[in-house]
């Protein structure tokens, strides 16, 4: 696998998934503020993805056998795609509690 392929894969399904490069012109004195703000946005993005992963794992643990019988989550590369699939499956096939969890997953996935 070449360097370009690794970079593309990293941006699609790795740590940089969902992030884009932004270039802006700011006064030199504001540079630290912009960098700090960008770092806080990245941290929030990572935290949100980790929370979504935890909720997906919990839903699969609780309802996986009953509602995900014909779904292969390993074929989905993005966490938000997995959340949408699991959320819809929970809403369609689960009980009232599963419906609520499914709605929460869909809301978090955006």
Automatic annotation (TrEMBL):
Source organism, top-level taxon: Bacteria
Protein name: Uncharacterized protein
């Amino acid at each position: 696998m070449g360097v370009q392929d690794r970079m593309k894969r990293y941006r699609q399904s790795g740590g940089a998934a969902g992030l884009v490069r932004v270039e802006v012109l700011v006064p030199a004195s504001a540079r630290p503020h912009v960098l700090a703000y960008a770092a806080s946005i990245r941290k929030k993005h990572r935290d949100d993805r980790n929370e979504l992963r935890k909720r997906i794992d919990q839903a699969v643990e609780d309802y996986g056998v009953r509602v995900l019988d014909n779904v292969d989550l390993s074929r989905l590369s993005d966490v938000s795609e997995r959340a949408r699939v699991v959320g819809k499956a929970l809403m369609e096939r689960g009980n009232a509690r599963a419906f609520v969890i499914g709605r929460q997953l869909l809301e978090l996935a955006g």
